[in-house]
Amino acid sequence: MNKRMLVSKMKLHGDTNETLARVINISPQCLSAKINRKNGAQFKSDEIEEIARRYALTEIEVCQIFFCRIVSQQDTI
User: For the structural domain made of 3-76, what CATH number should be given?
Assistant: First the structure.
C-alpha cells in the first residue's frame, strides 16, 4: 500500500482519520491500523470503492494506492 499517496489525497480533500473513517463507517483507530498495516489490517473492497469515489480516484490511482508494492532502489539492485 502507498501510505504517502493516500495521506496526500486525504489532505488534499481536507480529510482527517476521523472524517474518512466516518465516511467508510469504521473507527478512526481501525482506519489508522489499515493505513499503517498494523496487525495485518487491510482495506476491504467496499472501503476502497468508497475512498475511490470520495477522492475521484482513477483506476490507476486505486492500484497505486492499494495494490501496487512500492519498490525501493535497493530492491532493483
Answer: 1.10.260.40
